[in-house]
Amino acid sequence: MKKRYALENLGCADCANKMENEISKLPGVERAAINFMTAKLTVEAPKEKLADLRPHIDEIINRIEPDCKIR
Q1: Residue 43 lies in a domain
Q2: What is the structure's pLDDT at 33?
């Protein structure tokens, strides 16, 4: 299942790339992609895993770019 998130205050393309790489490595994630121009994160994972992944995704984003938040 695909889940799309809007990223607020995403200000660095290099940071977006780092986030994408780390999120892609989370257990259960089949694919993760961040479009820097639209500030959208797309995560593909089994439906039953998505809720469990959210805190880990938040942690990665906050660690790499503290001002960036998921809407």
Answers
A1: yes
A2: 98
- DSSP string spanning the chain? -EEEEEEET---HHHHHHHHHHHHTSTT-SEEEEETTTTEEEEE--HHHHHHHHHHHHHHHHHH-TT-EE-
| Cα separation, 49 vs 1, whole angstroms | 10
Q: How many domains does the chain have?
A: 1
d(CA 70, CA 58): 7
- Phi/psi for 12 (5° steps) reads -140, 120
| Cβ neighbours for 63, distance < 8 A, ≥ 6 positions apart | none
Confidence of residue 25 (pLDDT cuts 50, 70, 90): very high
Q: Is residue 71 part of a domain?
A: no
Place of tokens 């994408």: 20
- The structure's pTM equals 0.93
